[in-house]
């Protein structure tokens, strides 16, 4: 079973290393190909490179660094580095990708691109509840647990899975996994003005959270899984 791994935090980010370890923990004789951006590109959406060359560096027999976007990574992976994967996995993103975040996120763009090409895909993100730091070992364990279930129930054609981990203190019990609908509420839109400059100061943790949606599930201490349509 071949997995393509990518992200929008860059190939050296701790999240993609955690994702790699999570797949290895499945012990299913898997083949892993990492095709990820050379730098952090959070919030780049579904941008693709079409009018300039894309530099590719082969780091190892299974790792490729791309001077392009997450969507570029998936396009190159499917056409040149692993043309017949079983799954494309993106993440683990350092920060949530809940609700309408799917329109902004490079993490989500990668799995959306895979879905367009008929490949099953899953995005993994970890909400950050400041001032807590992400426990990547725990995130790896959660990812392995969820992967073991989701690879048995691949999304229906034209859809992908979007997984968002909650952020818990170390002494709290294991979170529940809840399949839910994505929120359609907008992100907080607030700016501070200094002269001619506008600085975004919206607070992610203060966004609206309709009961039962992915934002509410995640902010309430559980793991949210949504099936997203193209």
Brief synopsis:
The chain has 230 residues and is an alpha/beta fold.
Indicate the mean pLDDT: 95
Coarse structural class: alpha/beta
Strand content: 25-35%
The order of strands across the largest sheet is 3-4-2-1-5-6-7-11-8
Which blocks of ≥5 consecutive residues have pLDDT under 50? none
Main pleated-sheet profile: 9 strands, mixed
Q: What's the number of extended β-strand segments?
A: 11
From the N-terminal CA to the C-terminal CA, the straight-line distance is 25 Å
Give the C-alpha Rg.
17 Å
Q: What are the defining features of this structure?
A:
two-stranded antiparallel sheet; alpha/beta; single chain; 230 residues
Could you describe the 3D structure shown?
The protein is α/β, with parallel strands linked by helices and 230 residues long. The protein is 24% helix and 26% strand. The chain has 5 helices and 11 strands; from the N terminus they run βαβββαβαβαββββαβ. The strands form 2 sheets. The protein has a 9-stranded mixed β-sheet with strand order 3-4-2-1-5-6-7-11-8, with helices on both faces. α2 (70-81) packs parallel to α3.
């Amino acid at each position: 079973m071949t997995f393509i791994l990518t992200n929008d935090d860059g190939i050296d980010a701790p999240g993609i290393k955690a994702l790699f370890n999570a797949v290895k923990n499945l012990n299913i004789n898997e083949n892993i190909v990492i095709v990820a951006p050379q730098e952090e590109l959070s919030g780049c959406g579904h941008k693709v490179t079409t009018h300039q060359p894309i530099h590719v560096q082969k780091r190892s027999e299974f790792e490729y660094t791309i001077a392009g976007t997450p969507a570029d990574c998936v396009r190159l992976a499917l056409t040149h580095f692993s043309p017949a994967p079983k799954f494309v996995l993106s993440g683990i993103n350092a920060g949530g990708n809940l609700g309408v975040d799917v329109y902004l996120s490079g993490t989500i763009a990668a799995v959306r691109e895979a879905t367009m090409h008929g490949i099953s895909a899953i995005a993994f993100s970890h909400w950050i509840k400041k001032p807590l730091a992400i426990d990547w070992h725990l995130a790896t364990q959660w990812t392995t647990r969820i992967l073991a279930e989701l690879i048995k129930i691949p999304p229906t054609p034209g859809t992908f899975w979007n997984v968002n981990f909650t952020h818990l203190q170390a002494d709290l019990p294991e979170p529940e996994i809840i399949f839910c609908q994505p929120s359609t509420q907008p992100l907080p839109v607030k700016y501070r003005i200094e002269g001619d400059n506008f600085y975004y100061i919206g607070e992610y943790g203060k966004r609206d959270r309709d009961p039962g949606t992915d934002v509410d599930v995640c902010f309430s201490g559980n793991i949210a899984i949504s099936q997203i349509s193209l």
